[in-house]
Request: fold
Amino acid sequence: MLEELREIICEYVDVKPEQVTEEARFIEDLGFNSYDFMSMVGQIEEQFDIEVEEREVINIKTVEDAIKYIQSLQE
Reply:
């Protein structure tokens, strides 16, 4: 799942794939702004066939948070 997320993230921000680690924070480390982040969430919903709760988005700070959240929705 990290590889899939890495590809999506690199479409939205100008970072090298190796910078996208599980510990990387979307805003502080990867340079997301809120618009890009929400656009990426929409793409994640499509790619993984899930629906992200708007109130849960604020809890997704790191790539690892995103992975855990996606996995919880797929169970």
DSSP finds four helices and no strands in the chain. The CA atoms of residues 15 and 32 lie 10 Å apart. The chain has a mean pLDDT of 96.
